[in-house]
Structure formats: C-alpha cells, structure tokens
Amino acid sequence: MTKPRQPLWRWFQLPFALRVFALYFVFVGMSGYFMLDLVVKEIKPGVRQSSEEVLFDTAQLLAQLVAPHMAEHYTQNSGQNFDPTPGQNQPQALPHQLQKVLASYGKHRTQALIWGVEKASIPHRIYITDVAGIVIYDSANQDLGKDYSRWNDVYLTLKGQYGARSSRTDPNDENSTVMHVAAAVRHQDQIIGVLTIAKPNHSMQPFIDRTQAYLTQRGLLLMLLGLAVGALLAWRLQQGLNRLETYANQLSAGERVGPPKFRMFFEFANLARALDKMRQTLAGRAYAERYVQTLTHELKSPLTAIQAASELLQQPLPDADRQRFARNIQQQSERLHQLIEQLLQLSELEQRQHLLETKPLDLAVLCQQAIQQRQGRIDQQQWQLQLDLPALTLEGDALLLQQSIGHLLDNALDFADLGAQVRLSLQLMAQQAVLTLFNQGPAIPEYALPRLTERFYSLPRPGKQQKSTGLGLNFVAEVVKLHQGELQIENVTRDPISGVFVTVRLPLQLQ
Description:
Layout: H1 16-76, H2 96-105, E1 109-114, E2 117-121, E3 125-130, E4 135-138, H3 152-158, E5 164-168, E6 177-187, E7 190-200, H4 205-252, H5 266-313, H6 319-350, E8 359-362, H7 363-373, H8 375-381, E9 384-388, E10 393-396, H9 398-415, E11 421-429, E12 432-440, H10 472-482, E13 486-494, E14 497-507
Parallel strand pairs: 9-11
Antiparallel strand pairs: 1-2, 3-4, 3-7, 5-6, 6-7, 8-10, 11-12, 12-14, 13-14
C-alpha cells in the first residue's frame, strides 16, 4: 500500500510571516507597477492637452490682432477672397510690418532654463487662411496659396466649431507629429478667415521625458519604501510568533516565566495572557492533586507515631517509658508543625511567577545574618569556618535570600562532620553573584543528587533516626528560580578532604 502523495506546498515550509510578506510583495509590486504605468502613460496626453490650451489662447490673441487688418482688406474687396500673391497695385491681406512680426515670432532665439530643460527657440508656425480656406499667410513660407479647407483645423473653424488637428510631417515617424490649433478671424460677428498656430510635439518631449523619469524614480522609491515597511512588519510579526512559541515551550517545560509583552500586536499579548491563564489553571489543579497526595503521605508517619504513643500511654507504664513516649509525641508534634509551616511557605512561593518586591541588597550582609542566627549550632559542631564575603550588591528579595542561605547552612550542619572544615565565599563573575558553600563530610549518594530539590525528598541524618521534612532544598531551588539564577550541588573529593560543594549563581539585575 503506497503512501498518499503530499501536496506540493507542504514541501515549502516557509515561515508564516514570510508567506504574508510574499503576498504583500506581490500585491504591492503589481499594484505599484500598474499604477505607475498608468500615471506615466497619462503624462504625455496630459502635457499635450495643457499645451493645446496654451496654443488655443495664443491663437485667439493673434486672431484678434490680425482681425482689423483682414477686415479692412475684406471691406475694400467687397467680401471677395484674398489673393495670396497680390500685384503691385493690389493691397496685401496683412500689412508688411505685421507680417514681419508674425514671421519673427517663431524664429526668435531664446535662452531660458524651464524646469531643468533649456529652451533655445520658439518652434511655432503661424498661417492664415481666408474664408475659402486658401493660405494667405505662412510664417514658414512653405504652403502659401494652398487650399487648407479640408484640414480639420480650418474646416471646423470656418463652420464655427473648435478646430484642431495633429498631423505627422513624416508618415513613418510617430514622433514627427505637429499640433495645430485654430482660431476664427471675425469681422462684425462674421468669420472672414482662420488663424492657425502650430507647434511640433517633439518640443515638449524633454518635459515629458523628465516628468516620466521623475515619477518613475519616485514611484520605485515609494514601492521600495512600502516593501521595506512590509518587511519590517513581517519581521515583527515573526518575532512575535517566535516569542509566543518560546513562551509556550517554556510553559511546557515547567519554567517559571511571565507572559511576554507586546507593544505593537496587542492580539499576541492577549494570546500570551490566555496561555498564562490556562497554565495557571492547569498548574493549580495539578498542584492541588500533588499537594494533597504528598501531604497525606508525609502526615501519615508522624500521626501514626503519635497515635501509637498515645495508646501506649493509656496503659500502666514505668515513668521512664511514659516520659519517652511523651517526648516522642512532642517531637512528632513539632515535626508536624514545622512541616505545615514550611508547606504553607513553599506553596505560597510556588504560586509566584515573579518576585513581588525587589530592592538592591548586599548579599554578604545576608550571609553574615544567617550565620549569626545559627552561631550556637556552629559552635556545637566545632566548625572550622572560613569566610570570604566581600560586599556584593544585587537586586532581589532580602528575606527569601536570607532564608535560602539559612537552609543551606542547616543542611551543612546536619550532614557535616564534627569539627569539619566549612567555607562560605562570594565572588563576582560575568555580572553574576556566585555564592559557594563547601562542607566537609560524607558524600551524597549518586542516585540522590538529581532528586535533592524534590519536595519531601530527604536523606537520613548521621546519628539521627528520623529524616527532615525534605522541603528545605526545594525552597532554595524555588527562590533561586524566582531570582533567575542557578543552583548546583555536587560531591567533591580532594585528598585528604572530601565533602559537598553547593554553588548558587544569581544575576545582579533581574530582567
């Protein structure tokens, strides 16, 4: 039986943010391309439309200037058409001086820099036709006397409409088009001729090219900027997802961490809080079950001893036995009291996700205080105590740290040999406060080393029949976790001295 084929897209396991950016890239790229292409294509007709309006205004102005002269000739000839090649005794349609002005209009040399484009001449052509469409004046002197009545500019203007056309000077060259805009020459509201001003479109091409290049450049920059912003958002999105994944993995591993904070994506913050709430709910249920089971187990032994001793005390016994059973009841009662107190303290500590109050503190002072509180037992044990406690300031909870140091000293007092060498030292390493405690004594069994910080796990004390509550090192481990530190316990064998070496590493600044 063959396995079903996997879809092709499953072979490309791209990150979610990268897939989002790819879609964004395609959308922005295509939208930007089509929009830029549309804008660039509209530049040429837009410029030509603007130029056509200017030509229209110019044609209207020139038509008003030549109208009186053409009207005079029109009146003298009783409305007959003009002769483009007048004889010696026949008056011209336009005065010679006016013809010179019109002819020089398009030939005048200029030196002007207009929006980055140098303009050296005015490439205009002006021609005038009579009412029959015959050219009676041509500033270029190329079509004088020809019939222009079928050209749109003349034809439509003579009919009282707006006349304009665009024609090629070279049929094979699309860039050789010339724009023609006409205006009617009137006399007493009667059209007596047409004035057309022509301008080659290639004279506007530098402006069109410059504008197209400018818009293309700016458009590409905007597209790149948009893609950069999209890449940044996709990166931030992927970072947020990675932080959520890391947080979920930390919760699965049982690490005590708070939910990550998000400034931009509040939905991620809501999801992180929901995960934290779910973790607290599940952890609370599991903790309650585990708490009841372990508490029942630990209470059973002292309660059984108390019950047995109380039953024996109800019978006639010698005074020595009666006192021994009474002391046993008292010892088991004290053990129950100590167990309950430590359990309450530990349960409150385990429910914390972070330290409630922190302040700068001197770890050396806390060590000195813990030693002073146990000075009596230290003297009884006849310890050879060596201290190396330079001032070392860090951020943390002073009470919890002092209690943790006390638990470490208590364990050393319980297991160290009489007259043992004990060293307690502090040093600064890589922005961490390193507290080390060495006590000379029997080594810890290898099987017990990984379980020393488990709740209720305890080893028999030398010379004592009963065990401790098994909560001291568990308390120390919880405090070290809250301070974002590390706890390490190992055996050390160095002739002629062997014993147990405890290392606590605490960061100077909490994150």
